[in-house]
Amino acid sequence: MDPMPAKRPASPFTPLDFQLVLLRRMADHNPGLVEDARHELGVSIADMREANRRWQAMLHAPRSRAAVSRYRSILGAPESVTPRQIGDLSCEALLWPVPLWPDLRFEVLVAPNGVAWNEWLVRAPGAPSPRLETLDDLTPWSCTVDEVARAFAPARPLEGTAPTRWGLAFTAPDASGVRQECAAEFTWGLLQRVGVKGQQP
Question: What is the pLDDT, as a whole number, of residue 9?
Answer without folding.
Answer: 46
